[in-house]
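Bench notes, afternoon.
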Amino acid sequence: MERGNRRQPSVTTFGPVGRLLATGAVLLVLAWFLLFGGFFGLAGAVIWVGWVMPRALRDVWRRAELPSTDLTRLRDEARGVERPPGETHLLFRNDGRDGT
């Protein structure tokens, strides 16, 4: 798989809009802890900010994985990089096999 950029949609997000909505949801949970949680909400907010939020935002904003293309395959062949036979995505295969 090729690394894409943060503006492209991935399996878990819908591009920049989905990433912004997911970030907003993470921040809304923090706001809920602080506004309505009282003492236990403060403890929850500390755990949320210290452990949950960094991991969630890291996963949300990770670069999208893209299927390999013919250009990537040719570049890797020129460099001598071996790829597993099933790594190329069915949509991008150009060898006559259509996956059916």
